[in-house]
Amino acid sequence: MAPQHARRRARIAFTDSAAKQLENITSEAEIHALDRALVVVSVDPEIGEPIPGSAADPQLRECADEVERVRLLYWVTALKTVVVVAYLEV
């Protein structure tokens, strides 16, 4: 029997605007909260809710964590291996 492998995580990439937001985060608590949200999305890119309003690809998705107060807006590439984060809110 072949060994079972864990599901591969999606790679996270940031748009320029999201990267700029990352530069402005200085609190360790905010970094930790954002890191947790990114891990969740990397494990299951489809976890976020589709944002209505556009049928064009790529479909924007929103993943919100009310406890950590983090909201990610992102899209998943056609290969579903790379999640591109478009906007962060901490």
Describe the structure.
With 90 residues, this protein is of the alpha+beta class. The chain is 27% helix and 29% strand. It is built from two helices and five strands. It has a five-stranded mixed beta sheet with strand order 1-5-4-3-2. The chain starts with 10 loop residues before the first strand and ends with a strand. 18% of the residues are buried.
Give structural attributes.
5-stranded mixed beta sheet, 5 strands, alpha+beta, 2 helices, 90 residues
Query: What portion of residues is helical?
Result: 25-40%
Biggest sheet features: 5 strands, mixed
Query: Helix/strand/pairing class, anyone?
Result: alpha+beta
What is the radius of gyration? 14 Å
Total E-strand runs: 5
Which blocks of ≥5 consecutive residues have pLDDT under 50?
A: none
Count of DSSP-assigned helices: 2
Please give the order of strands in the largest beta sheet: 1-5-4-3-2
Q: Which outline best applies?
A: globular
What series of H and E elements makes up the topology? Answer: EHHEEEE
From the N-terminal CA to the C-terminal CA, the straight-line distance is: 45 Å
- Strand residues, percent: 25-35%
Quaternary organisation of the protein chains: single chain
Rounded mean pLDDT score: 81
